[in-house]
Design brief:
The complex is a heterodimer of chains A (about 400) and B (about 375). Chain A has about 400 residues and is mostly beta strands. Chain A has one domain: Porin (Beta Barrel), CATH 2.40.160. Helix content of chain A is about 5%, strand content about 55%. Chain A has three helices and 16 strands. Chain A has helices spanning about 5-20, 155-160, 340-345; strands at about 35-45, 75-90, 95-100, 110-120, 125-135, 165-175, 180-185, 200-210, 215-230, 255-270, 275-295, 300-320, 320-335, 360-370, 370-380, 390-400. A 16-stranded antiparallel beta barrel of chain A has the order 1-2-3-4-5-6-7-8-9-10-11-12-13-14-15-16. In chain A, a hairpin with a 4-residue loop joins strand 10 (about 255-270) and strand 11 (about 275-295). Chain B folds into two domains: about 55-195, Cytochrome c-like domain (Cytochrome Bc1 Complex, Chain D, domain 2), CATH 1.10.760; about 205-365, Cytochrome c-like domain (Cytochrome Bc1 Complex, Chain D, domain 2), CATH 1.10.760. Helices cover about 30% and strands about 0% of the residues of chain B. Chain B is globular and about 100 Å long. The chains are: A mainly beta (about 400), B mainly alpha (about 375). The interface of A and B includes residues 338, 340 and 352 of A. Chain B: InterPro entries: Cyt_c-like_dom, Cyt_c-like_dom_sf, Cytochrome_c_Peroxidase/MauG, Di-haem_cyt_c_peroxidsae, MauG/Cytc_peroxidase, MbnH-like.
Chain lengths: ~400, ~375
Amino acid sequence: MQLFTCGIGRFVLVAVCLCVASSTYGHGDLNPEPGTKAEAAVSVTWRDQGVLLSNGRWQIPGVLMGGEAYPVEEGISVDEARVGVYHRSVHDVFGYLQVSSHAGGQEAELHHAFAGLDFDVGPMLATIVAGRMAAAMTPANGEHASDRLFSETPLALDAFLGRQLNDEGVRLVLSRGPLQLGLESWRGTAFPATPGEGGGSSDAYIHVRDRHGALRYHAGLWWLQADAMNRQDSRYSADGHQHGGAALVVAPEYWFDGNTEMAGAFVRLDWQWTVQTALNVDAQWLQVNTAGVLRDATRRADLDADDNGGWLQASVRHGNHQWGLRWEQLVVENELSGAAAEAMAIETQLYNQGHNPNRTSVIYRWQLHPDVAVRLEAMDDQIQSEQQQRFAVGMVWKAAL
Amino acid sequence: MKFLSSAVVMLSICIYGCGSSSTTVDDGNISDTEFAWAIRDGIPLPLEPIGNPMTEEKFQLGRHLFYDVRLSGNGTQSCASCHHQDKAFTDGLTVAIGSTGEMHPRNSQTLTNVAYNATLTWANPALITLEAQMQTPLFSEHPIEQGIDESNQNAVLQRIMDEPRYAALFDAAFPEQGSAVNFANIIAATGTFVRGLTSFNSAFDRFQMGDAQALSDSAKRGQTLFFSEDLECFHCHGGYNFTDSNVDRTIAFVERPFHNTGLYNIGGTGDFPADNQGLFEATSDPSDMGKFRAPTLRNVELTAPYMHDGSIATLEQVVDFYAAGGRNVESGPYMGDGRLNPFKDSFVNGFSINNQQKADLIEFLKSLTDNEFVTSARFSDPWN
C-alpha cells in the first residue's frame, strides 16, 4: 500500500503490470473507468497503383522528409495492425501498451508504452504521462489507418511530422471543463528532431472539446519546436526500419542541423443531423518554419523554409454508410544560400518552382458489422508535378477484445 | 456555432490561400566567371586560382604550348605526346614514355575534367593545383618527362620566342608584362588550357538533362548496377565527375581520398611494386601502401589500359578484377593475392555478375564517352 502513496511507485507498478500484458488498446480517448481493456485493429488495402516515386524514393517536392513517411504501394498492403491493452487502477493510475506494425512494415514494434496519473490541482484535473507515445497536440497525430476515415495519412503529417510524432517523453495536461492545456517534452527520437546533444523537441497545445445540442466539436491551437543535429532521412537507410523494398533504395547522404518550429490549428465538427444522419468536418492547418544548415560530405548551404499545409475533410454518415471528401495541399517556400545552395537544393530535392503538392480523395465507407468496415477510395494525387489517379479497396477490422 | 464555422473558413483560407511554392537560391555569385566554361546546367564551376584567373587569351596560348614539342629539353615532346585528344587526353600506352625514352612507372592519366580533381597525379596529396603539378612533367629528373633543366631551359625559352605566332599570343595573355615569355607564364597559360578541358556532353549527360532516349536499355540497366550497393562502384566513382576526389566552387569540406583496390599483395604483406607504392610514397604510413586516387570514369571507354600502372588492358577485365575483389598474381616477382591485401579498400569486396550484367555495366560506362570532347576543335592541336 505504501507503494501506491508514492507517485513514482505507482508508475513502476503500472509499468510492471503492463509488461506482462499481451495485447493493446486503441487510439483515441483513454477510458476513465478503472479496469483493463484490450483492443485490436487491422487495416488492409488493395491499391491499383503505388504513389509516384522519385529515384525509387517517395519525395514530396520541396520538403525535407523523414520519419516513417513511406509511400503506399501497389497491390495489397497492411496499412496497420495493432493490438494493445489499457489499464486504469482505482487510484487513477493508468498505463497503455501497444504493439503494432505500420506502413507495410514487416516487423511489429512496441509503438506505445506509457504510464500516467490523474490528480487534482485546485479546480483542475492534472494528468501526467510518461513513456513512448504519440504527441497529442492534434488528435490527427495519434491516428492510424484504422482510426481515420481514409486509409492514407494526411499529406501534411507525412511531410512535416514524418507521418507521426511518436517519441519517448513526458506530457502534462491540465483540464477544466471543455478546456485542456497540454505541455509535452520529447527525447527527439522522432522526426523532425534528433535525440542527444543539440536535439529534442517539445510542444504545447490548448484544446476545447464540448457539445452543444447535436453538435460536438473539438478544436485546438498548438505549437511545436524541434531541434535536430545530424538529421538524415532515415526512411531508406539499411540499418533503419525495413519497410517493404524501401531499404533497397540508395538514399542521398545529407544531414540537417537546425530548428523546426510548427504552429497548427484544427477544428473537428460532428453534427448529428438526425438519428440516422450525421455530418462531419475536419479542418487542419500547419505552418512550419525550418531554419538551419544542410550539408553533405563536402558541401553545405543555409536553409530557411516557410511551409504551409493542411486538409479539409467533410463526410456524411447515414446509418452504416459514409461518404467523404478530403482535399489536401502543401505550399513550400525554401530559401537556400551559400556556395553550394543550388547543388544542395538539387541533392535534397528541395527545388520546387510553382507546384503546390496536393491530393483530393473521395471515399465510400460501409460499416458491415460493428467491428468491420469496407472502404472504397479514389485519389487524385498531384503530390508530384505528374498527376496520378489511384483507386483503393480496403477493409478495417477494429474490436475490443 | 458561428465561431466554429468561422474557424473552419479561416483554416480553409490558410490552406488554400498560401500562394505558390517556390525555392530561391542565393549562391553568392559563385557562378560568376569571365571564361566560357563548356559546362552544362547542374554542374558547378571549377575553382579558378586567384593567382591565375581563367581568360580566353591564356587558354589559347596554353593550347599552343600544350601541343608544342618546343616545350621540352630536346625539342621532341609536348604535353600532348602523353595526352592525345582522341584518347580523352591519355596515350594508350601501359606506362608513359618521357622525352629521352625513359619509362614512367605510371599510366598517363586522362585530363578529362582535371580542373575538378581534388589532387593531381595518381597519389600525391600535396599536389592540389595544376600550376604546382606542371612542375613535375616539365622539370622532373626521375623519371624524365619533358626534360627541361638548367642546361637547356634558356634554349627552350628561345625556341618559343623564335616561333612568330607566340609573340601575339603572349602579349594577349599577359598584356601588362613587357617580356612575358618565361616559365611562370608558360605554366599559367598551359594550366589554364588544361583546366578548361571540361567534358559534360556524354549520352549520360543528355539523359540527365531529360533526354530519356539518350541511354540504351542496356546502359540504363548498367546504371542501376553501377549505383547499387551490390557492386559499390559509385562509392569511389560517384558524383557528377565519377570520382570521390572532387572539388568545385560549392565544396566547403574538401576530401582527398585514396584507395587500395587489391591490385597487388606481394608476399602477402600488402606490399606493392617498389616504384609504384601510391600514397605510401608521400606519407610513409604503412597503411597507405597501394593507395591511389580514383580517376574520373568520364570517357573511360577511351582511356585504356587501366589502373595506375596500366596493368589491366580492357574494361571487361577491369569489371572482372573488381568482381573478384582484387587480383591474385600467381607467379613472378609480384606474386601475391591482392584480394587479401590487408590495406584493401572496404568497398572492394567482390560481387557476382553474369555476362549480361557485365555487358550492361560496360554499356553504361561507354555512355560516359563525350565524343564532342575528343573531337572539338577548341581542344585540338593548333599547329596542324
